[in-house]
Amino acid sequence: MVGGAAAALPMVGSSVVLDSLPDLAIPRSSSMKKKQQLAGRSVELGSSFAISGICSRSKGMARKQQQRKDQRRLVIAAELGGQYEDTFNDVKTPIMNYFTYKAVRTVMNQLYEMNPTHYRWFYDFVVMNKPGTGKHFIRTLAKERQDLAERVMVTRLHLYGKWIKKCNHAEMYQEISDENLALMRERLLETVIWPSDDTNTEKIG
């Protein structure tokens, strides 16, 4: 019987052998699970290193972008005050245009008293053309009346010379400073919320 059983064992399939020996299959499954767990840990570690590397690179790029934004903001903030450096050429044109306008008014007053005919013609010309444009106004006037254009040019130069002698730059600086302070104080009073009488009576009661 033993020999027959031994002879029959090789004829049994591998699935039957494994089923008849369940205890021998446990170490294999546990070792495979351990290997899978170790492999999973290695994958997790590798992914964590990769994620940390990506995060550090993204943080570095974000810092560089923020530094660039700060530098741009600094440049824009400087432009608010006017980057004049050594020249004030952008201020000269409004001053010249203003004195052209003032010279036109002066010449018109003179013509009104001395030559009403020329005054009427010059009045109509001023209505059609803006004296505040300065050089453009004088250029257009010279094409129509050369004598009046020269008179306006001489008058504006004379008025500017008088203004230079009378203008007190220190006084003007102080006026600008006082006006800035007054505007800031005015704005502060507008933003302050003063307590009303009702709130005071409620707190006392």
From TrEMBL:
Example of a GO MF term: protein folding chaperone
Entry-linked Gene3D superfamilies: Chaperonin-like RbcX
Annotated Pfam families: RbcX
Coiled-coil segments: none
Swiss-Prot/TrEMBL GO biological process terms: carbon fixation; photosynthesis; ribulose bisphosphate carboxylase complex assembly
Key words, A-Z: Carbon dioxide fixation, Chaperone, Photosynthesis
Record carries keyword Iron-sulfur: no
Classification via InterPro entries: Chaperonin_RbcX_sf, Chaperonin_RcbX
PANTHER family for this protein: CHAPERONIN-LIKE RBCX PROTEIN 1, CHLOROPLASTIC, RUBISCO CHAPERONE RBCX
Record-given protein name: Chaperonin-like RbcX protein 2, chloroplastic
